[in-house]
Amino acid sequence: GAVVSQHPSWVICKSGTSVKIECRSLDFQATTMFWYRQFPKQSLMLMATSNEGSKATYEQGVEKDKFLINHASLTLSTLTVTSAHPEDSSFYICSARDLSLAKQPQHFGDGTRLSIL
Amino acid sequence: SQQGEEDPQALSIQEGENATMNCSYKTSINNLQWYRQNSGRGLVHLILIRSNEREKHSGRLRVTLDTSKKSSSLLITASRAADTASYFCATVITGANNLFFGTGTRLTVIP
Q: What is the mean pLDDT of residues B55-79?
């Protein structure tokens, strides 16, 4: 079945560092990718939706200059947390979907745990 | 917020028992999906039920949908210790493509 690969799975870095997270669809073309954020023992909150070749659509309250999303190809989307601070520490999860396959669900990556010191 | 509500928040049962989780949502939906998440991992899709369907089965899973009450339930029969995880319902609202997740139920199955 379809697989979404997310990398890295775990990042620890100093405050002020920018961190890039990659999300790849391995065996299908992901016309749309979604980025979620999850705090401990809480649900997933949608941050933004990215469509290949166009600007991402951010949810209310999500700073687009803070969380840069690039979806340059049909198999790769990246999320860059710029100048990360401790409050950005969270679990970030991407998902991908081929909208041409209307009956297919979203496929999720295994997530990236980001810890900012 | 369009996030759904799930109850119970946490559920602890003995192996072999059935587990029932409930989900309520707020708006008109295209479909409702259930996902499973092991601790610190991504989500695994379990089952999708469309707005014109009332019940769906997949192995030990049974999902119901009542659009008049804007609610759904997930039943796991003959639970196993390996079923221990968090379970989330997620809705695709009419006219949108993204998922809105419920608050989740943490299921613990005691061997």
A: 97
User: Cα distance from A111 to chain B (closest Cα, Å)?
Assistant: 5
Q: Do A42 and B100 lie within an 8 Å CB cutoff?
A: no
What tens digit of pLDDT does each residue of A88-98 get?
999 999 999 87
**In this predicted model, what pLDDT tens digit does every residue of A50-103 receive, in sequence order?**
988 888 999 999 999 999 999 888 899 999 999 999 999 999 999 998 766 655
pLDDT level of residue A42 (50, 70, 90 thresholds): confident
∠ CA B58-B88-B55, rounded to 5°: 35
Q: Label residues A84-105 b or e (16+ Cβ within 10 Å = b).
A: beeebbbbbbbbbbbeeeeeeb
Compute the count of residue pairs across chains A and B with CB atoms less than 8 Å apart. 50
**d(C-alpha B30, C-alpha B39), whole Å:** 29
Give the distance from residue B68's alpha carbon to the nearest chain A alpha carbon, in angstroms: 23
Q: How far is B41 from chain A (nearest CA, A)?
A: 5
How far apart CA A65 and CA A45 sit, in angstroms, is: 18
Write b or e for each residue in A64-79: b if 16 or more Cβ atoms lie within 10 A of its Cβ, otherwise e.
Answer: eeebbbebeebbbbbb
Mutation to test the A interface, candidates B45, B88, B91, most A Cβ within 10 Å: B45
In 3D, which of A95, A110, A111, A93 has the Cα closest to residue A28?
Answer: A95
What tokens does B24 get?
Answer: 């309520």
